[in-house]
Amino acid sequence: MIHELRIYNCVPGRMPDVLARLETAGRHFFRKHGIEPVGFWTVMVGESSQQIYYMLRWQSLADREAKWAALVSDEEWLVKRRETESNGPIVASVSNTLLSLTAFSRPV
What we know:
3 helices; 37% helix; 31% strand; flat
């Protein structure tokens, strides 16, 4: 099992647009391609209130590569993404980290 932490740094003032895209189109296309979100978070206290964190769960690196490749090449997704950016970019940058659980993180 692999978890992926993705952090979106929103263009100032565009966080509502990013959240709306994740809630509607993002979740739809995740389901369509078998991508399993763990959760979505905004920053209450921290470095930037313009960040959205979300975590995805994958069975393996191969699972991630296959499903993510299918998502980013999905023509319907590309159209929706362009629509959500019709007034300009909404995400300034994205970082992602692939994580594996430590042995002591598992339930005992």
